[in-house]
Amino acid sequence: MSTPRPYKRIATEEGWATPEMMQMYGKVLESRTLQDPGFYSLWGFFGQSQSPRARDLYERIQDTGARRLADMDACGIDMQLLLLTSPGVQIFDAPTATALAISTNDHLAATIRQHPTRFAGLAAVAPQAPQAAAKELERAVQQLGLKGVVINSHTQGEYLDDEKFWDIFAAAEALDVPVYLHPNTPSPQMVEPFLSRCLDAAIYGFAAETGLHVMRLIVSGVFDRFPRLKFVLGHLGEGLPYWLYRMDFMHAGIVRSNRSEGVRPLRKKPSDYLRENFYYTTSGMPWEPAIRFVQEQMGHDRVMYAMDYPYQYVADEVAAMDGMALSDEHKKMFFQTNAETIFKL
Ligand code: 1DF
Ligand code: MN
User: What is the pLDDT of the chain when averaged over all its residues?
Assistant: First the structure.
């Protein structure tokens, strides 16, 4: 760790939360007013379990000071890009969520002002109120210096391919900042068969939910409407890079057969949008063969490092990533310059 490195390590999907938001989660867990089994499964564990892992994560997620900086130093992370942890404000009613997005963005900006070389961050918005969300994204970028927006997949079972949400995309495109589509547990409509085998969260359900969300977006034509819109996916693209061939083949057949009003012809192949409008981080996937595949398919300029602190805080991983068989140039892109370019750090 002490030998000087010719690159900075920037980790690009790092979770945080305010104590206020954790208290609000606690109230939802007690009142059971939210209709979202995935939420109770995930946050019932982090928020209420006495297991050492749950207690530890619950404390680390709320620390944006000394302890987090010490953890970063311990494994050689120079900078974290902070994302309000999933599901963020998206479980609350629209006025509550809109207000909470504003207050957490202010909180995040204050944290970054204290440690401007160690932290940058993405804005939270409440898709429940799309126009207010677009306005908050603009404020967060232009006045607070945040670098884009995180949306934690479905919002109470709704997906962003519904045009009522597209003001958010218009704002992101106009501001030239990326939308990080971060996972959530599967929507209430799809979570049931995941639950009894504990498959609803990071083991698999996150990717099933978020991959579905991305496919809905692509097929909807949103990237024909907003051709310069940029998305970032964690977890090496939630499995989608493995599907490039098959999604194109099958999508062409569905369009030709005119099977559904919901599937209109696109200007490009589905895989083209994944190659041209999307960037990928390695959160939770520090596995060289898979990283090399995504780099080869999407380009070295589209794949960047993420740890997914505190959920995947494994110090050895950083050393494994340092040891990847990459040229010096590609390694610097992977750890540092891609993130600097995409998030304008
Ligand atoms: C977990 C993983 C939780 C990720 C997360 O946020 C999260 C987990 C609540 O391990 O339960 O962001 N993740 O992105 O892989
Ligand atoms: Mn994450």
Answer: 96
